[in-house]
């Protein structure tokens, strides 16, 4: 098992909170570093710096071997395209750079179904740019997860997603909605796979791996 010292961004999000629990349930995990804006429940193998991630990143100095990035927002939450890009692109890239500097050889990042830098949809365009930026970092092992509509309870109000989620469960193949808990289990399984270079996991594969 290579995923023993782990760095996780986005531990308080819909998928991140499931992944946090999954990782801490693994007895062979030595340490999980999870910087968050609000404190997490204490755990003997959890290191939880509290503050803004941009501020915390330079302060992280413990070596890790695997990094998970579950960061992400919406245009409505971000308030503008510039703010959205700053979080879903710039902050993710900065996190990945810091994780690499700390020794991580495998990065697993959540992208999106349909990610394409040439997309006419801003959200998918940014996700495509993100994938390209992460691949350009030259990771020994890079896993890009492309989930479809995420399903699960959120702390913040997202009425649009509440309307779309039931419909997404009627769609076939990779377009079928995916539970956040299923995505978290899939990410963990992918973290345990040995490999080289970049791999893209589409939503139908993620659902299969997360069963």
From TrEMBL:
Entries under InterPro entries matching the protein: NAD(P)-bd_dom_sf (IPR036291)
Membrane-crossing residue ranges in chain numbering: none
Superkingdom field: Bacteria
Gene3D superfamilies cross-referenced by the UniProt entry: NAD(P)-binding Rossmann-like Domain
PANTHER family: OXIDOREDUCTASE HTATIP2 (PTHR14097:SF7)
Protein name: Oxidoreductase
